[in-house]
Amino acid sequence: MRIIFFLTCLLCYPATANDWDIYPVPADPGEGMTWVLHSLSDDFNYEAPAKNKGDTFSQRWYEGFINAWKGPGRTEWHPHQSFVQDGKLQLTAKRKRLSQKIMMGSITSHEALIYPLYLEIRAKLANQVLASDFWLLSEDSTQEIDVLEAYGGDREGNTWFAERLHLSHHVFIRDPFTDYQPKTDDTWYYDGTVWRDEFVRVGVYWRDPWHLEYYVNGKKVRESSGKDVIDRHNYTNGSGLNKPMQAIINLEDQDWRTAQGLTPTNEELRDPSRNPYQIDWVRFYKPEPVNH
Q1: In 10 A of CB 237, how many CB atoms?
Q2: Nearest Cα residue to 74 out of 43, 51, 95, 58
Q3: Do the Cβ atoms of 166 and 208 come closer than 8 Å?
Q4: Stronger pLDDT, 21 or 9, i.e. the higher one
Q5: In which region does residue 52 sit, left (phi positive, over 0), alpha (psi from -120 to 50) or beta (all else)?
Q6: If you average pLDDT over residues 190-210, what whole number do you get?
Q7: From 100's CA, which of 36, 131, 167, 269 has a CA 20 to 30 Å away?
Q8: Considering the chain, what is the average pLDDT of its residues?
Q9: SS3 call for 161
């Protein structure tokens, strides 16, 4: 009888249930296709301390950026500002001693991914004027897809940003440095929500080099499609967003924000209620034929 009961339980509960299973993938994989979960997906249901994060973390991620760069503006990505605890990735920020620099968490995937790809994060923004980010970047830093870029701080002067999610992409020429990203109003998504107050799901379907779809809490809110939107000035020489890209999750202090006075104070950085940027999970899917 005990064996029968045990087998019945196995039938009742999926052996590979994931935290995100209650959320259907909102993008259409195409006729005759189905979404297949990619192994980079991470539910962060393990412990990884700030120092010596362990094998479960390290099989997917490493601390820092895709190269030795420490970050924009006053940013200094530091390995001890990221850890996994209570089922979430936690990224924090603190002032570097005797410096204007701010030490912040950043992690990068070992693996680079290519379209077609659906990727999504469930996260709660830090209550900071810093950027809470989830993005893709090519190895040569010439192509970038920003899945989530948001500024959750409750400081006066940041209200407009705290109510919006920046949904965009970049194409670059590195020498001489030239940057294109779309600047239309729909790159700042607004629906009246103050985004720091709750966990939010933000996803992108990178369908092909010339098509991106953005989703917020399962709703399609923006499309970027065609050469005029993806690469208006032909910086990619007609190839569009075609390069493998690594996934990055981090905090940033950005020059244009600092120039507006939107950089953290020491008091804000010392306030534990303003840290951390919390990530419940990230998931990645590739479309494959139904009968594959």
Answers
A1: 7
A2: 95
A3: no
A4: 21
A5: left
A6: 98
A7: 167
A8: 94
A9: helix
What is the pTM for the complete model shown?
0.94
Listed residue (90, 37, 50, 55) closest to 280, CA to CA: 90
Distance from C-alpha of 69 to C-alpha of 37, rounded to nearest angstrom: 31
CA geometry: angle at 49 spanning 121 and 253, to 5°?
A: 55
For 21, the 3-state DSSP assignment is helix
291: confidence class by pLDDT, cuts 50, 70, 90: confident
pLDDT for residue 2 is more than 50: no
Question: Degrees (nearest 5) of the Cα angle 59, 64, 67?
Answer: 100
Q: Which residues pair with 120 in a beta bridge?
A: 203, 283
Q: CB within 8 A of 8, min separation 6: which ones?
A: none
Whole-angstrom Cα distance, residue 278 to residue 124?
A: 5
* 3-state SS, residue 172: strand
- Fill in the amino acid letter for 54: G
Residue 135 has φ and ψ, to the nearest 5°, of -155, 170
Tell me the sheet residues that pair with 278: 90, 124
Query: Would you identify the CATH topology of the domain 2-289?
Result: Jelly Rolls (2.60.120)
Listed residue (207, 209, 208, 204) closest to 220, CA to CA: 204
pLDDT of residue 217: 98
What pLDDT score was predicted for residue 17? Answer: 87
Catalytic machinery residues: 144, 149
Distance CA 169, CA 182 (A): 7
